[in-house]
């Protein structure tokens, strides 16, 4: 086995504590050697206030995981890539498509790997759904992603700021799965609901069409209390597919055919190690492109103010 | 000289009468053989209500120019490419970036040429500005595009509809020049002003940064009466560049160094004939990508209602 990759983590918030640290702790491909964050800290390793301070002090670093809000990711990524460190980008990979294109160019120029991570693509039943759909004739598909923002993103002001994506923050997870399992598609119409006191939408209804003319709908709602829905449905000649639980369970005609424990972040870090060892990048911008297209094409509704 | 390309024009409105018909009339590379439009007509050739009717009736057609509003361009382009006709897309090339990517794939698959035309790139002083900037060290740049929508787009409802771009309809002309003469750049912030009764912005202030950290600003305003501004300014070590008149005049430190008569559409059709003869496509999506990024990242202001 190769030497572990010496990695630093930047932006120590909820997702780092919930997902990144547990995944890294169990993975022999990595050794976590430092962290940088304005507020958060990681126990038992050196902590720094900024990525610049971390890179200056910890020469052995080979890679960094960037987990701050997307509005601040570009500068950190540029700093790390310029210092010839491999870079893992939390999702979404940036605040604009063009800035991530720029990072791709910089990574290639500096001979390091860039990874635009889409954790939901590594949900346990996604590959089974992809295999099923590629063997079937699809008639239509529907993406229903409805959750309670107060439960999953309590008091996260950045998510409501311009560039914070609003309900497209979970919606981009749905898109990262849909663009992996469905044929190429593009948006034909969209309606985005903006709370009157917020810069980002709380709900959206989007219609897509695939290259071969199939209709795909996407319904995003951030005010869903009670049961939460993270489902992709497809009507096919081989039955009605339901990929539910954010990609964790696959059923055909009501019969559960695939379910296993969730391991998205361990799979993401496995993939990152693979591309670092292989000397390549993995940057698929299709999910982010659809979000940008939805904002450009979408009709804006103003709805009731939102308070946490 | 080769045989003229037998071309049909679709969506007969103001831009077709003002620009496409005069350019085609003078160009021996083309023979205009048919037109399709819901409302407009072209004299002395067969006219049809739809592109489908035109393609069915006029078998000799080799190419089509698609000039309807962007919201309706994809379906027509798909129909034409599927019938193995070369396609000239007026700007903007589509309502989303993803749909134009889909058209590129289809054109390649059918062995025909697709042209995403950006007429302002062919303004007379643009190449001189590009040459100047590539020989100078740029410190900063500013795009100022301020015009009177009531004068240039009177009662054009589609331009205010979702997907109609609003002030980014002229703004994308500025971007088509800027992305051609300046280094690669991306948006870092944007503010978009939406009239309270309209779905598209009437003004926008956008800041970009180039890969090497230079600041670029863009100021779009659709309520400018009196003198109109379509200018790109750059502060450089070789002097202050002003490319004015939508790319028609170039001055350095106040001295006019390039001015010649405007011939954008004749140049566009020359380029289209070139790519058709060469069997290639020419589809640069950078200007449209920046618009999508501005809508995604931008802060929305609601401003006074707009009435024509």
Automatic annotation (TrEMBL), chains A, B:
Keyword Transmembrane helix among UniProt keywords: no
GO molecular function: galactose 1-dehydrogenase activity; nucleotide binding
Enzyme class: oxidoreductase
SUPFAM superfamilies reported in the protein's UniProt record: NAD(P)-binding Rossmann-fold domains
Signal peptide range: none
Keywords: Oxidoreductase
Alphabetical list of InterPro entries matching this protein: Gfo/Idh/MocA-like_OxRdtase_N, Gfo/Idh/MocA_oxidrdct_glycsds, NAD(P)-bd_dom_sf
Residue stretches spanning the membrane: none
Domain Gfo/Idh/MocA-like oxidoreductase N-terminal: 5-115
Enzyme Commission number(s): 1.1.1.48
Protein name, entry field: Galactose 1-dehydrogenase
């Amino acid at each position: 086995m190769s030497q572990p990759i010496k990695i630093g983590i930047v932006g120590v918030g909820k997702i780092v504590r919930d997902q990144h640290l547990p995944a890294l702790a169990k993975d022999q491909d990595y050794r976590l050697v430092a962290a940088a964050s304005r507020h958060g800290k990681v126990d038992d390793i050196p902590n720094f206030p900024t990525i610049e301070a971390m890179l200056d002090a910890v020469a052995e670093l080979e890679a960094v995981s960037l987990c701050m809000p997307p509005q601040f990711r570009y500068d950190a990524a540029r700093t790390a890539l310029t210092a010839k460190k491999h870079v893992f980008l939390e999702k979404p990979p940036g605040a604009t498509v063009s800035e991530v294109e720029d990072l791709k160019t910089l990574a290639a120029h500096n001979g390091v790997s860039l990874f635009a991570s889409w954790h939901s693509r590594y949900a346990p039943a996604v590959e089974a759904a992809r295999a099923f759909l590629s063997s079937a004739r699809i008639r239509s598909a529907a993406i229903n992603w409805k959750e309670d923002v107060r439960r999953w993103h309590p008091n996260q002001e950045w998510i409501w700021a311009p560039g914070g994506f609003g309900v497209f923050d979970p919606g981009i997870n749905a898109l990262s799965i849909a663009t992996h399992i469905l044929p190429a598609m593009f948006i034909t119409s969209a309606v985005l609901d903006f709370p009157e006191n917020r810069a980002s939408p709380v709900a959206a209804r989007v219609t897509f069409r695939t290259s071969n003319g199939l209709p795909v709908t996407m319904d995003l709602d951030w005010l869903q209390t009670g049961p939460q829905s993270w489902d992709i449905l497809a009507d096919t000649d081989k039955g009605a597919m339901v990929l539910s639980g954010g990609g964790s369970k696959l059923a055909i005609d009501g019969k559960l055919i695939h379910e296993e424990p969730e391991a998205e972040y361990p799979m993401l870090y496995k993939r990152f190690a693979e591309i670092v060892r292989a000397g390549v990048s993995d940057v698929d911008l299709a999910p982010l492109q659809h979000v940008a297209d939805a904002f450009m094409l979408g009709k804006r509704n103003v709805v009731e103010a939102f308070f946490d």
